[in-house]
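Problem: given the chain below (604 residues), write out its structure.
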Amino acid sequence: MPDDAALSAAEELALARLALAEGDLQHAAGHVAGALAQAPTLPEAHETLARLAAISGGGVDLFPLDQHTYVGAAVARAHLLAAAGRPGDGLDLLAAATGYAPQTDWAGVPWVIAPELTERVTPEHVARILMQVCAAVPDPVPRAGRPALAAYLTLARNAVTAHPEHALLLGASSALARRLGEVALAIGWAARGVRAEPTKLGEVWLGYAYRSAGRTREALAALGRAIEHDPDDLAVYADIAGTLADTGRLDEALDWIDRALGRDPTFDCAVHTAHRLRYLRDGDVAHLVALADFIRDHPDDTHEHGDLAECCRGRPWLGQLTPAGGPVAEALRRVAAEGDRAATVRLPTPPAPSALRTITGAGLRVEVDGDGSPEAHEPRRADAQRLWRYDDGIPVPAVPTPSVAAADRLRQLAHPAWPHPPAAYDAAVGLATLELTDLVGLLVHPPEPPATAVGRVLAAQDPTLWVRCVQVWACLGLLHHRTDEPWDGSTRRRVLLDLVWGVEDWITEAALFALVTAAWVDPAVRPDVAGVVAGRIADAAAAARTRPVPIATSLAHLALAAPALDAETRELATTLIAKAAPVPRPRNPLTRLWRRLTAPLRRP
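Solution.
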């Protein structure tokens, strides 16, 4: 427990004792609740709670439950209920607290882990508590989070010892043990439960335990027996398909999913798994777009699914910002890896405006060997808005600086990764109230990165990343500008098209990503966006035949992320990617953190 939390709990307890001395039981109760919220296993907190209970005749009524009960008050009530002979009700409240904050050890107190508790609470009640905890935590629980749940595993051990043939208790205990990394224990308990009483649920628990141990054959056998118990449980079909897919048996997995969909083509687990497996089979983004459509049209699914996020995770533009290409980005990565911030960077041709301003902003000197192609510094279409003007060949922003409030708002939202394009669109709603001039200004006047772990990664590993983050989220913000306007004649479409057809720049990529995202969330705009993407890729490919186009590979990845794209353009995009050199990853102490930042969601 951090020192500041311990001090805070100590202060709460000091105030509680003062209130007790004055006979002010309500204020004493509030301070005890505050201490338990900070340090739920602190002995002094429990001693003070016991004093309060002795003075007030049990003290339960001092911690009433309502719609907005403070977690510390719920935990205090749990302990008092247990002391009053109602440990089952106390366990219910502790499990609720665990659901609220699973990383906190709410149950690590003597009465919960005492063997005699199982004589006062039925095995059915313990099983329900364990299942409630399982529903609140990831599978598996990260190592750092396991100590906070250890008391529940001790409760499970004690209950199984007291009721060694209770099938439901054994299965629920197995589920918890598996999540906490005790796979051998989970297999043993689940197997005992199935022997005691063969049921569908028992076989599912056993199958999951075998699967966690890597024993695929036994896992599939157990899940197959579960279907024999209940042929209509399509969730088990999806589990079998997922297990087969995890071992590379994709055709068999799809066969099981097709069997499930044949019974119910709208069953959410089967639909999610089907689209994920079909995408794994052929890489066609149409499967993911169809899944996004299903999610949008079925907001009341039986539970949260992670298939779409899993498929998009780590993939260019589907789940994260694509690293910049070209000599400027390569030079910046090299300098960041070597730590030489006073270096001179030699470039064959003048870079794009955002790239040049990023490299000079990093304190590096730039020497250019050639003039490059004049067309690289002109908008791809003459009527596109000009964000830059050139003074003696140096790009200078041609639009006003954004407001401080706009810069702060974007700094809070910008991130290099997102679960999937619709999630990025939803997150950008926080920029909906910004003025159009602010959003456009942010593209060429990026604020400094935040003083957070994300900001340090973006600034230290690759200085291009933060600028590109800002541009991506500013363009996503443009999607939320005046959404009351019909798409075809809307300001948001017009501005984004201007940016797509402006000077070849990182802004081009950001604007095209915003349009692709619009197509993900609104099927009506897909033909329009697909036409824009096809035209922009064709233009980049044509230009690349006569000169370098650093953004070409990224545009190709964007094309492959776009819904409803024609086959010819997809083939062109695939060819551009195949010809490109891979973007190197710098050796950097923050690389591991960067990987964590670009994988923000776990699969439920």
